[in-house]
Design goal:
There is one protein chain. This protein has 311 residues and is α+β, with helices and mostly antiparallel strands. The chain folds into two domains: 171 residues, 2-Layer Sandwich (Gyrase A, domain 2), CATH 3.30.1360; 84 residues, no CATH class. The chain contains six helices and 18 strands. The two termini are 22 Å apart.
């Protein structure tokens, strides 16, 4: 794993799903379909959110950003079709327009708490995750979005090369784009869930530790909300997403057992090749010692306090 404390690090995430929602009813429409309460989201701010099925399963995880003319939604590519279809099918009767922007826009994540300042964007951006604003970098127009990892830069796809050059010019000696395994390591350490990897449509918000404000319970009805409320009242969660630690390398697909001779307890979804951390789905409460079936090593598991999307 490459570590350079002086150089900026970045990764191209242009394959992420991107949508815009505009029109006179855009706010009410999204408020009626997404799990987050958008009433307090001002222009230049945003929120993590989910789109649930009528049975309360997680159809998509995303972030929603409010701008002057409407709303932008970003999600993992694996969640894009479910997000778009769910919103598209629910648009009847609403004065809204939906547009896919995935191929039209590039998205580059620049990592680090000081990334905003080092790119000269501190004055343009508000504080807090999801704060965003129109800006420019070496003449490249873009939208900068504060993220858990640093800052996301969204520009037109035909400006991608110019954007990469502008970032590289500020990155410092010896800098290079982050490799995928390094990005996954950061994501897992931060407890950020990737849809299609750690999250599937068979899962419920409580299993993923999705809680307010991501999944609101004090707003008008939205698809799946009744299931969320029932699970909240019962307090029973049979599966939990956990962070793991083991003395051996963990890989996606590796099985976990509930003890040396115990039943299957889950499957590793994100394996971290460097220090043995992973995100897993567990069947059972995870209180029994877990065993990494391929190696026989004992695995420490700790449920995430609060799950959140990786984008």
């Amino acid at each position: 794993m490459r570590v350079n404390s002086d150089a900026l690090q970045w990764t191209d995430r242009s394959d992420a799903g991107k949508l815009s929602v505009t029109g006179p009813d855009a706010f009410d429409y999204l408020q009626a379909h997404l799990s987050a309460d958008l009433r307090g989201v001002a222009v230049g701010a945003g929120s993590a959110t989910a789109l649930l099925t009528p049975r309360g399963q997680v159809r998509a995880l995303a972030r929603v950003l409010r701008f002057e003319r409407g709303w932008l939604l970003h999600c993992e590519r694996a969640a894009l079709e479910g997000l778009f279809r769910g919103l598209w099918n629910g648009r009847i009767g609403w004065r809204v327009e939906l547009h896919k922007l995935t191929l039209q826009q590039a998205l580059v994540t620049v990592l680090g708490d000081d990334a905003v300042a080092r790119l000269g964007l501190a004055q343009a951006l508000g504080a807090g995750e999801h704060a965003h604003a129109a800006a420019a970098l070496d003449g490249v127009p873009l939208r900068a979005v504060r993220s858990w990892a640093g800052v996301d830069l969204v520009a037109r796809a035909d400006h991608a090369d110019a954007l990469a050059a502008a970032i590289a010019a500020r990155a410092g000696a010896g800098a290079a784009p982050l490799e995928r395994c390094d990005w996954d390591w950061r994501r897992v350490i931060a407890g950020r869930l990737a849809y299609g990897v750690d999250v599937a449509e068979t899962m419920l918000p409580a299993e993923l530790a999705l809680s307010p404000p991501l999944v609101a319970t004090e707003k008008g009805l939205y698809p799946g909300m009744q299931t969320v409320l029932r699970q909240q009242r019962s307090g029973t969660v049979h599966r939990r997403i956990c962070r793991l630690h083991a003395p051996v390398l963990l890989a996606p697909g590796d099985e976990l057992l509930g003890g040396a001779d115990g039943p299957s307890a889950g499957t590793i979804t994100s394996g971290v090749c460097f220090d043995g951390l992973a995100l897993v789905r567990l069947r059972g409460d995870g209180s029994a010692p877990l065993v990494h079936r391929p190696s026989g090593a004992t695995v420490q598991a700790r449920p995430l306090d609060s799950g959140a999307p990786s984008l």
